[in-house]
Design a protein that fits this description.
With 101 residues, the protein is mainly alpha-helical. The chain has one domain. The chain has helices at 3-18, 46-56, 60-69, 74-82; strands at 23-26, 58-59, 97-100. A 3-stranded antiparallel β-sheet has the order 2-1-3. The longest helix has 16 residues, at 3-18. The model has no long low-confidence stretch (mean pLDDT 90).
């Protein structure tokens, strides 16, 4: 992970620690109801399961341990906020979720 990614992760971790009851909400028009963000190519697997949890809406406090059990967490929240897991993603810069404190 490059320096920007590490800095984003650190900043996100601080914000989430200060706002553990913040809700993860899908952004209407980006994620269809019950669907996945457009940067997820396969509807199955760990990454799809983690993203399903985010788009259905839940608190950060509930999400992080569940995502960690599947091998995810902060990176997945950042991907959803950035519009993909990589700047080469066609949806980069268009968030799929928002964090509501």
């Amino acid at each position: 992970m490059d320096a920007l990614g590490k800095e984003q992760t650190r900043t996100l971790a601080i914000w989430l620690a200060a706002n553990p009851t913040a809700r993860i909400e899908a952004i209407d028009g980006v994620v269809a109801e019950g669907g996945l963000p457009p940067y997820i190519r396969k509807p199955t697997g760990k990454r799809a399961d983690i993203n399903h949890m985010m788009v259905k809406g839940m608190t950060v406090k509930a999400f992080l341990p569940e995502a960690a059990r599947l091998g995810g967490g902060y990176t997945d929240i950042l991907a959803a906020l950035n519009g993909g897991y990589s700047p080469s993603s066609m949806t980069w810069g268009r968030p799929a979720i928002r964090l509501v404190a």
